[in-house]
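User: I'm preparing a small set of examples for a lab meeting where we compare how different chains pack in three dimensions. I only have the primary sequence for this one, and I'd like the structure in token form so I can line it up with the others. Please keep the answer compact; I'll paste it straight into my notes.
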Amino acid sequence: MANPVVQTSMCMCSFGAAPGVLVVSSQQTVMVSNMLQATIMDNKFPTFGMCSSLANPTVAAATSAALGVLTPMPCIPAIAAPWVPGAPTVLVGGKPLLNNTSKLMCSYGGVIQVNMTPAMTVQTP
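Assistant: Understood. Below is the structure token output for the 125-residue chain.
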């Protein structure tokens, strides 16, 4: 059974060098384990450390300048779509709840997934 994802959940990008902390900004009322519940629209991250995707223009430019030696550059996530699939039967503020089996795509080709969520599984009767 999937766990709900909440504020402060740790996520990782397949091209990132460090985990990032999820920022919940899609709603400010629903709490799980005393933390804001995330929805599929919560796709804001400060950074994932250094990015190594050649689809990222800064990485491509640095790699070209280094004569083809892969040169990671600071990550600035470029996310244009929501998480998929989420939990379509559980709505939070009219948006599907985000669970830890969902994935998110970065425009530079990275796949972002939840590594750790501090929320426990919540079962309803």
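A couple of notes for your slides: The chain has a mean pLDDT of 92. Residues 91 and 97 are 6 Å apart (CA to CA).

User: Perfect, thanks.
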